[in-house]
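lol so apparently i was supposed to do this last week
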Amino acid sequence: MTFDVDLFVIGGGSGGVRAARIAASEGGARVALAEEYRMGGTCVIRGCVPKKLMVYASAFPAQIEDARAYGWDVTGGDFSWPAFRTALDKELIRLENAYRSGLVNAGVTIHPSRAVVEDAHTVRLADGQRITAKHILIATGGRPFVPQIPGADLALTSNDVFLLDALPASVLIVGGGFIACEFACILHGLGVQVTLAYRGEQVLRGFDDEARGHVADAMTARGIDIHCHSDITALERTADGIRATATGGAGGTYDAVLYATGRKPNTDGLGLGALGIGLGSNGEVLVDDYSQTAVPSIYAVGDVTDRIALTPVAIREGHAFADTVFKGQVRKADHELVASAVFTQPELGTVGLTEAAAAAQEPIEVYVATFRPMQTLFAGRQDRALFKLVVSQATRRVLGCHIVAPGAGEMIQLAAIAIKMGATKEDFDRTVAVHPTIAEELVTMKSPVRRVGNA
Ligand code: FAD
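anyway here it is w/ flavin-adenine dinucleotide bound
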């Protein structure tokens, strides 16, 4: 049987673009890709990139204040959201074009259209055009999920924040995950009065308990009003703004309400169920270690599979798929010891097991250092940094590393290399410190603060 193309990729985000480019340029495949919105996907258009640029923008007021403590005669001035947005839009257009030309240069045919799967080897575009493919890759990502409460249509999601015409004076952020906490810090830094409502016990569920508590305390100390055990039951527009009815203290009237209550894989209406492709409870495509679905010609990578929803993971999965199917290099994406960062202020960087997960697995030692970093201490701030290593009593390997500090995202990337290589606590200890730095705490924690279990 002959096909129009060797590979049809649905979705031009992190995973889909990498797979298409490698299959075409290194695997010699004839590749087509459909993208229904903007090339680059969530990361580039409404995720990591614009968010990180907003993190940078939001950090200046504190930096300017600190500069005064260091002797500079500077004053803050006003932040112009329209000026920032114009610059942001320009940068995103540049990146979008770079993604598009990367694909075109690799020989990939782009269809600016929605695509759905018709059968194991056929994709249908929005205009009805059918394209047959030897392999189909689902890389459609995910979208924000808003619970169906009365007035849910009044809520903004992370998608909307980057497109606001003006910043609200006050915002209620609903949710306690990394996106909720990051936007809380960003908007607070830009001068918005921020209240955060989370139904659980503590924000940043899934991260190390001590680290998430440390971040929550720091957010509160900076003036973010966090209400845990608080659930929003209804939203209503009034003359003064949006009234939120809540259990647990976050009720009130706000200029805007932002929901960051999780994401759902984009599988609705894709035609997968009819083909016998299994979907999980969140609507995610079920795949094996090689990202292959129950239909052998159809694969799926990235957020749509709901494994680890991070850009570098989607890229690795897309690359491993292209190597396996088009280059004869059979390999799985490695989901072990994936480091990540939460770009709150201060940042949280993490790799490996939390203390609780490690203790459930084996006897451990826990090393913790908290201190006030020299740079902000000099400026009169009370901010504290936290460094934490979770170590196996039996093997001495560092099982987890959790850092809350300015630049934690940068530091954890480097610590992750050592931990991925199997470094022991003694390997950390015999590494001479770089002084004076914040990161030197990683190699100077001498005694455990506690031992959990006995080897
Ligand atoms: P996506 O990038 O979502 O791409 C999927 C593409 O498919 C989209 O462009 C969509 O328009 C398109 N599409 C969907 N359905 C169809 C269809 N039927 N036909 C055609 N096209 C379709 N990750 C990090 O690593 N670090 C971060 O700091 C970080 N910050 C984030 C901040 C926010 C606010 C959000 C929302 C996410 C963040 N992420 C971050 C997660 C990261 O963006 C995702 O993990 C990553 O983009 C997933 O890539 P993907 O290829 O699976 O999907």
